[in-house]
């Protein structure tokens, strides 16, 4: 079967099980779009900005467990993917980004819309390809998907010159296996590493599991629950580890770190063993490293050897696929109860409740998210942007199924919520999807409401409208002598009228008594809905450990005065 390069791309995508592509056409990639029109099995979702294409692919990948695919043209189309690719890299999300490139003869000559996207994305992709021969297209696609989904997942970019996509007919041969002799992601860990970890767990009196995104990536939910219940070890989940253990599980203590529960940070300080599963000890969890978990030995399990000992020294480093490692570990771990430790944790919870919502007639953003979780019974996917609303969602929403919190954790990308929610809904069409946004982040990608309408993507958008850039405003409040320069909005649109302009129902909430009814109304409405929750404008997120500080400097509630950093 002789095909053009563009047709080989389409055939290769079908071989990889792709059903949805997010993209926006342009000159260098038009040959691929000409081929896509002949492949109805590949549904193309036309976004309004290339950034939305890669972020939608991200949300799709996280919710479906498949590799997300996005397409952009050369030059500005490709560079508009960069932020979303970086976000996927930081959060270990499998994405294949396909970009058009100027014809081979024009490469290196500053041609119109030429950019070295391979060079630009080298630090933010797991791997990338510049395919210079049509005979190599199928192999590049095969290898890109294999690299993206295996080991520690991540984004892979495939750059295709326009003339490689055009009518350079060649025989389509789909390779049985990728040709990557130097790429061997680990499965089982060395047994001596696993035995050392088991010994520390069995000897521990005050253990804590830190469950990270790796639990979700490796589909190790059942193994985690078995370990937790066998050894009665309390679990603290990282931001990206949320939903790796049901929120309602009696041993799930919630989130630690900068905006984690105060009792969790104090518990880490008292623990004698941290069992870190698929997490990377980033600064938002550890704070000042020299003061982090001063009494604890560390078991660190990760598929990526470069993460082990990078930030926190491991007493027992274990390198392997987390699901494999837990299957190795479980027979070696002895049943336990840790009664005294659980009593101490109950004391900490009682003394430092952390998540109480004060009673007031003002509409508090954390109250909105608490009610959202109650109305949905935690049976939905919540996709957030970045900032205060992200932290309140992590604190106050329940997540009882895997992969039901989708957020930009490592890069912290504002505007992520709108396109990622569209991708998440297309990846899990049977799940209710809520995009939780701040008014600042929402305005970064709200143009893709048009994509929701055009494709009838049933996402509910909850805007926590506080009239400012909430998290930056909070830092100014606490550390910059309340100098609110460039963080307060006076030109926000009327979000209800904006929704109407897109043909979407728009609702506004200004009182606590209205919240539950409006959420229920949105859920009973077919298709996308926008809700403008006009919340208190100067509410801060607590608990709060200031950046670079330790649990000893934790602020558990609103201080009476701010200070200058």
Largest sheet: 6 strands, parallel
> Which structural category do the helix and sheet elements fall into?
alpha/beta
pLDDT averaged residue by residue:
96
* Total of helices: 23
What proportion strand?
15-25%
Cα-atom Rg, whole angstroms? 24 Å
Task: Give a count of the beta strands, DSSP E runs of length 2 or more.
Answer: 20
* Shape assignment: globular
Unreliable residue runs = 560-565
Helix content: 25-40%
User: What's the arrangement of strands in the largest beta sheet?
Assistant: 3-2-4-5-7-6
Q: What's the end-to-end separation, in Å? A: 67 Å
Q: Any overview of this molecule?
A:
With 565 residues, this protein is α/β, with parallel strands linked by helices. It is 36% helix and 16% strand. A six-stranded parallel β-sheet has the order 3-2-4-5-7-6, sandwiched between helices. The protein has a six-stranded parallel β-sheet with strand order 11-10-9-12-13-14, with helices on both faces. Helix 1 runs parallel beside helix 7 and helix 16 (365-376) crosses helix 23. It is globular. Residues 560-565 have low confidence and may be disordered.
Summarize the structure.
The protein has 565 residues and is an alpha/beta fold. The protein has 23 helices and 20 strands.
Keywords:
23 helices, alpha/beta, 36% helix, 565 residues
Helix/strand layout:
Blueprint: E1 2-3, H1 5-15, E2 20-23, H2 30-36, E3 43-46, H3 50-64, E4 68-72, H4 76-79, H5 82-90, E5 95-101, H6 117-121, E6 127-130, H7 137-149, E7 155-161, H8 162-165, E8 170-171, H9 191-203, E9 207-211, H10 213-217, H11 221-231, E10 235-237, E11 252-254, H12 262-270, E12 273-277, H13 283-286, E13 297-302, E14 316-319, H14 322-329, H15 339-351, H16 365-376, E15 381-384, H17 388-396, E16 405-406, H18 417-427, E17 433-438, H19 439-445, H20 449-454, E18 459-465, H21 470-479, H22 495-501, E19 506-509, H23 515-523, E20 529-534
Parallel strand pairs: 2-3, 2-4, 4-5, 5-7, 6-7, 9-10, 9-12, 10-11, 12-13, 13-14, 15-16, 15-17, 17-18, 18-20, 19-20
Antiparallel strand pairs: 1-8
């Amino acid at each position: 079967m002789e095909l053009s390069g563009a047709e080989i791309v389409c055939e290769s995508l079908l071989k990889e099980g792709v059903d949805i592509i997010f993209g926006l056409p342009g000159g260098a990639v038009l040959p691929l779009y000409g081929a896509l029109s002949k492949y109805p099995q590949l549904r193309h979702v036309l976004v309004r900005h290339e950034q939305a294409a890669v972020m939608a692919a991200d949300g799709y990948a996280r919710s479906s467990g498949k590799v997300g695919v996005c397409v952009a043209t050369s030059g500005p189309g490709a560079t508009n993917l960069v932020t979303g690719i970086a976000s996927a890299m930081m959060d270990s999300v499998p994405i294949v980004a396909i970009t058009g490139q100027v014809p081979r003869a024009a490469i290196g000559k500053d041609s119109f819309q030429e950019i070295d996207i391979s060079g630009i994305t080298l630090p933010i992709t797991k791997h990338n390809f510049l395919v210079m021969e049509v005979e190599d297209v199928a192999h590049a696609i095969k290898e890109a998907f294999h690299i993206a989904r295996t080991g520690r997942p991540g984004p892979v970019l495939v750059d295709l010159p326009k003339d490689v996509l055009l009518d350079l007919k060649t025989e389509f041969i789909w390779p049985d296996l990728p040709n990557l002799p130097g790429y061997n992601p680990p499965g089982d860990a060395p047994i001596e590493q696993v035995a050392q970890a088991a010994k520390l767990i069995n000897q521990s009196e005050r253990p804590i599991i830190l469950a990270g995104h790796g639990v979700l990536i490796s589909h190790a939910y059942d193994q985690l629950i078995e370990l937790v219940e066998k050894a009665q070890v309390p679990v603290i989940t990282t931001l990206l580890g949320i939903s790796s253990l049901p929120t309602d599980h009696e041993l799930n203590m919630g989130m630690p770190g900068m905006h984690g529960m105060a009792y969790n940070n104090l518990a880490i300080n008292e623990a004698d063993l941290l069992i870190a599963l698929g997490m990377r000890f980033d600064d938002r969890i550890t704070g000042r490293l020299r003061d982090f978990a001063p009494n604890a030995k560390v078991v660190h399990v990760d598929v990526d050897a470069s993460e082990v000992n990078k930030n926190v020294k491991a007493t027992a480093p274990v390198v392997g696929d987390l699901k494999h490692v837990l299957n190795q570990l479980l027979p070696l771990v002895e049943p336990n109860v840790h009664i005294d430790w659980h009593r101490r944790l109950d004391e900490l919870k009682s003394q430092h409740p952390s998540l109480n919502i004060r009673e007031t007639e003002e509409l508090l953003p954390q109250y909105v998210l608490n009610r959202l979780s109650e109305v949905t019974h935690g049976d939905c996917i919540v996709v957030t942007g970045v900032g205060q609303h992200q932290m309140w969602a992590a604190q106050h929403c329940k997540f009882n199924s895997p992969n039901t919190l989708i957020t930009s954790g490592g890069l912290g990308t504002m505007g992520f919520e709108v396109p990622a929610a569209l991708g998440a809904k297309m990846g899990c069409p049977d799940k209710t999807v809520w995009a939780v946004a701040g008014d600042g982040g929402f305005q970064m990608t709200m143009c893709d409401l048009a994509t929701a309408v055009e494709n009838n993507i049933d996402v509910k958008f909850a805007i926590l409208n506080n009239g400012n850039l909430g998290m930056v405003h909070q830092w100014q409040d606490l550390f910059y002598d309340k100098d609110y320069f460039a963080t307060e909005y006076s030109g926000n649109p009327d979000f209800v009228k904006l929704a109407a302009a897109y043909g979407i129902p728009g609702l506004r909430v200004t009182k606590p008594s209205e919240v539950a009814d409006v959420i229920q109304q949105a859920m009973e409405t077919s298709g996308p809905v926008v809700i403008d929750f006009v919340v208190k404008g100067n509410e801060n997120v607590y608990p709060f450990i200031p950046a670079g500080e330790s649990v000893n400097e934790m602020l558990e509630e609103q201080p009476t005065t701010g200070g200058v950093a």
